[in-house]
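Dear Dr. V.,

Thank you for agreeing to look over these. As mentioned in my earlier message, I'm a first-year student in the group and I'm still getting used to reading structure tokens, so any feedback on how I've presented them would be very welcome. I ran two proteins. I've put each sequence directly above its structure. The first is here:
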Amino acid sequence: MADFEDVRRELENLSIFMSKDLGGRNVIEIITVPLPEGIKDELYFQKLVAWCYVAFVEVFPIPLKQLANLIRANDGAGHRLLVETKDVVQALRTLRSHNLAKKSVSNQRQIALAEAWFVSNGGLPLSWEACCTSLAGRVLEVFRLLGVTWKDAVASEDDRAIFLENLLLAIDGDWPAHAFDAAVAEAATSIGLVDFDVVAYRLTRIENWRKLAALFCDREVAMQAITRAITQELKTIFGSD
């Protein structure tokens, strides 16, 4: 019977495999949201959903996409498992974290998917422990599939180099919007701005920052340069202490 520690450990193992094959480079970010601990109650379940959402959406989007493409090409059942699990996690997170009063097609789909999952996995009356165990087991199965797919992708010397090169090119060329949030927050703090809306600020500037990032070969150097540019821009607009 799977629990959260099994899931967390499996993702850590995947991170270790990837880092070793990529010459020590870490391509799965550390997850910093609160961990589910203690009794498997409603709060535990909410934390588990939040952790799984971050794992699927935020910490390794490009490697996950690359592995998903391989799974889709070679394992139809495995690909359905991956897609359905991601969809369920998204729906459960949306149901718990967003106002879904507006009757849009998307909202109704999310509600229906989440409610159907609770009925199928939580039982009647609803058991939070059953929900936690079921979700952990499903996510664990997906992470194990990703691990097997990674090992298969790097097993052949002929295919390994091309796969890893393409993966790194995709990672270094991808700049999701949230990747700049820390730089904006750091820049705002450095000039004394308080309660600054990082997301609102980046909305109209994200494409320009991506163009600046493309000027650099090294991702870390690019981020340092962009942080400097953001700081200068904020000083121009708001002044500094």
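The second protein is here, in the same arrangement:
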Amino acid sequence: MGVSNVPLAKYLLDMGGAVTMRDAKEREKLSPTVLELEEKGGALICGEKYLDALCEDVIFRAPGLRPDIPPFAEAVKNGALLSSEAELFLEICPSFTVGITGSDGKTTTTTLTHLLISEAMKLENAGRRAYIGGNIGIPLIPLTKELTERDIAVCELSSFQLQCAEKSTDVAVITNLSPNHLNWHTGMDEYIAAKTNIYRHGECRALITNAENAVCAELADRISAENASSCRPVVTLFSSQKRPDGGDSRIWLEDGIIYYEGEDGVPFPLFDENNILLPGKHNRENYMAACAAAIACGFAPEAIKKAMEAVAPTFGGVEHRLELVREKDGVRYYNSSIDSSPTRTEAALSTFKDKNSILICGGSDKNIPFAPLAESLCKKAKAVVLTGEAGPKIWDALKNCPLTEKSGLIILREPEFDRAVKAASALATEGDRVVLSPACASFDAFPNFEVRGRHFKELVRKL
């Protein structure tokens, strides 16, 4: 069933549909909500053979299930329509939609976009609302009961959700693209193709993407090369390094000020980065993407400047994203369990300007190379404690890194997570920080990154 398909089943039952719910779990392990839906008329098939004999007309797959697995392929061959909760939402949503995807920074950018649009709506006092949902943990389908044509839905969308999407959002944001989920996708080409479904269909009016990311910059160049009169999205490029050269409009950081330049070519100062509470270059990029998305929704830069004044000085971040857990004996402990790819861990490391970081890395392997991470650890960390299924693979990357021997990096190997946390704490002295930034998924030891992060916080509070 999955998180998103439970409310979808309720929605379909409320609409009078004949619904069959299928789940790999045994009946006694199902949530009470699923059993309540059975009492309301939903048929229930569960256990190891839950996908046998698919005979339904429409099949809504959970995002984690590939669309080409044999049971689905056979059902489609026999005439079934294969869809998903996210695809149905995009088809029936009555409001303007903003879709946010990327390898890193999706949730923070989605949250910031929602906050900025909400603040801008307060200023206009027009009685409309911004809603948030999707991969951020809030199912999309229930939102359709409240959304109107005047509202804006801000949606975080994963590659799993976008894999088969045939409808794009009105505004699309791609924060960055780097190897990720290659244990699920057939390769980088399929991963990128899934992500670009967020704008590739005719409905998309605007694309906001990262000028400093090679893959994103290439995608933007391809779109910009198309005839301006063709049905293509307006491209806005953002950069934390310099004013981007390409695109139709741009947003960038220069001398500590975030500037926005629309198609009129006139730079507008949006905000001073010194007033942004969230640390790190990557969070400046998240803010720039969010500002550009809000402007693409029709809000004036002046309105977004006022929205930034309300949001940026006070917003402290989203749980599991460089979340300060506590300080004990002069050592700070950060939970960044969301860092499930090497590039996220590299970004987390870059937030800190010294070499006082002790990282806890490792978890479920996603078939992503660790060589660039090994180099970053050597340059920017005091120590790393390797744990979990992927610990040996990161260890191999460090052994093969030419910087390791002379870097002074302390490397410990503790396969068991709880012992890894204790080992990291034992290494720390006053002025250090211990950062859970796994660079890997959680599935070797935890159901998801949230459970991993909360378990880490429990352990830290007991130190």
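From my reading of the second output: The domain at 87-311 is CATH 3.40.1190.10 (UDP-N-acetylmuramoyl-L-alanine:D-glutamate ligase). DSSP finds 16 helices and 19 strands in the chain. Does that match how you would interpret it?

Kind regards,
E.
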